[in-house]
Design brief:
This protein is α+β, with helices and mostly antiparallel strands. Helix content is 42%, strand content 29%. The chain has helices spanning 36-47, 51-64, 74-90; strands spanning 2-6, 9-12, 23-29, 66-73, 96-101. Strand 1 (2-6) and strand 2 (9-12) form a beta hairpin. Helix 1 crosses helix 2. The longest helix is centred in the last third of the chain and has 17 residues, at 74-90. The chain is elongated and about 65 Å long. Bound molecules: L-tyrosinamide (TYC). The site of L-tyrosinamide (TYC) has 13 residues, from strand 3, helix 1 and helix 2. L-tyrosinamide (TYC) binds at residues 28-32, 34-36, 39, 58, 61-62, 95.
């Protein structure tokens, strides 16, 4: 509904509640070549986990094929995927990192 405030300003009242922005889970994927120690360092550096937590996540990926490293708004998740992939490729490792909407 429009409300006249002065001669050239019209305020539009918000009729419906806005939905919160979608969140994205960022996963690392297992492969046979990336060293475990490299994956632990990646999880610590880009997902702000301590060494123990990073090791647990790495071992879950190694066992189950996939493991969740964090949940973020779209732009932050996308940037983390890009940074992880760039770091892995520069080091010559095939590590894969993906994001999925929650
Ligand atoms: N499977 C790898 C190895 O045995 C370790 C590994 C863990 C690789 C997690 C990728 O996302 C990964 N060296």
């Amino acid at each position: 509904m429009a409300t006249k405030q002065d001669s050239d300003t019209v305020l539009i009242r918000q009729e419906k509640k806005l939905k919160p922005p979608p969140m994205y889970q960022v996963f690392l994927m297992n492969d046979d070549y990336t060293p475990m120690e490299f994956v632990v360092a990646i999880i610590q550096e880009y997902f702000n986990k301590d060494r123990e937590t990073a090791t647990q996540i790495m071992l879950k990926v190694h066992r189950d094929g996939k493991g969740m490293c964090g949940v973020y708004p779209r732009d932050i998740a996308s940037t983390k995927v890009d940074l992880v992939l760039a770091h892995a490729r520069k080091a010559g490792h095939p590590l894969q990192c993906v994001m999925e909407e929650v």
